[in-house]
Amino acid sequence: MHKPMLLALAPMKDVTDLAFIKTLNDLNSLPDYFITEYFRTVAHHKKMDPYIMRSIDENPTGRPIYGQLVGQEPEHLVRDALNLMNHACAGVDLNMGCPAPIVCRRGAGGGMLRSLRAMDSALGALRDSLPAGGFSVKCRLGYETPDEFERILPVIARHAPDRVCIHARTVREGYRSPVHPEWVKWAVETLKCPVIANGNIVDTQTAEAWVRLAAPAGLMAGRTALRNPWIFSQLRAHFRGEAATAPTFRDLLRYIRSLYKHTLEMQDHYVEEKHIHRMKKYLVYTARGLPEEFDHHMKRAKTSRDFMHICEEILDNDTPFPSTPPEDTHLFAHFNALLTQEKACLPAGIQL
Ligand SMILES: Cc1cc2nc3c(=O)[nH]c(=O)nc-3n(C[C@H](O)[C@H](O)[C@H](O)COP(=O)(O)O)c2cc1C
């Protein structure tokens, strides 16, 4: 049996919204905490995205949610952080990992990793403005190469965030490379606060590999939660030494119906095309490991009727849903590297 493991849903733009959070609630598969998709902090724009704010204001789960900011200027980050703290959020998370060129060019998100001085100022300003327990950081290992983390981590440590989540890749590595657990292990040994490991958790075995290699305080899962929303209840059962639920295609149909309902509720003025478009954004992940016809027909559905008809045709049966996605897709790749890595060895010169 393991020590208790914190579980988190990774923030994901346009998909881990209130509709998805409500769906996890319906399925009784909740992480210990949430982080919103990022709010862009920009100088001239004080009003914060009302769509994202709904996941804080209407969070039905009883689990804490942190508002995430992506930005660069300390003054504006603090302005938006204080605004967030006027809502029912548990704290503020600074995004230091987003690889989108438009974000990085401004020195925000992953771009912040290229300037230790800018990072230092932003972290310092947020730490000074947020209460104890209310400031977390989500970062990558570096911009170009993982060994940049050797210089980045001390800057983070200096500002004593309350929790640090590490997506164990560089910005250049995007989302499809193997992850680098050795650097997370180093952070676990170095920082005083809890460290959460993120990247390539697709099932209980990959989660277990993270624990074996880096011994983090918690695990954060993103894409896999869209594919298999039961991942949180499965991980919790696994770490307690209990049997995990094994969903069938019919359970998936239940998931899709719940998501369909909550996505519909999010629309102020119903536009069928918009609704179906959003459903497809979530379900491309779910399609991995389902018969190919699901992906083919689902992507081509134009009306809600067609969309639900396809889901029912293929999923209304007791076929077991594979617990692990195929590894060779553009959405899930290289996760087996976690299973085959025996030890997390740091490069020479780094002392634990
Ligand atoms: C579509 C998409 C949107 C994302 N949006 C965000 C975001 O808003 N904020 C953030 O910190 N990370 C974002 N990420 C990164 C995820 O939080 C996570 O770090 C990454 O997907 C690796 O975890 P995973 O392998 O469990 O998916 C996004 C990732 C994807 C695939």
TrEMBL record:
<comment type="function">
    <text>Catalyzes the synthesis of 5,6-dihydrouridine (D), a modified base found in the D-loop of most tRNAs, via the reduction of the C5-C6 double bond in target uridines.</text>
</comment>
<dbReference type="InterPro" id="IPR035587">
    <property type="entry name" value="DUS-like_FMN-bd"/>
</dbReference>
<dbReference type="Pfam" id="PF01207">
    <property type="entry name" value="Dus"/>
</dbReference>
<keyword id="KW-0288">FMN</keyword>
<feature type="domain" description="DUS-like FMN-binding">
    <location>
        <begin position="9"/>
        <end position="304"/>
    </location>
</feature>
<keyword id="KW-0285">Flavoprotein</keyword>
<keyword id="KW-0819">tRNA processing</keyword>
<protein>
    <recommendedName>
        <fullName>tRNA-dihydrouridine synthase</fullName>
        <ecNumber>1.3.1.-</ecNumber>
    </recommendedName>
</protein>
<keyword id="KW-0560">Oxidoreductase</keyword>
<dbReference type="InterPro" id="IPR001269">
    <property type="entry name" value="DUS_fam"/>
</dbReference>
<dbReference type="InterPro" id="IPR013785">
    <property type="entry name" value="Aldolase_TIM"/>
</dbReference>
<comment type="similarity">
    <text>Belongs to the dus family.</text>
</comment>
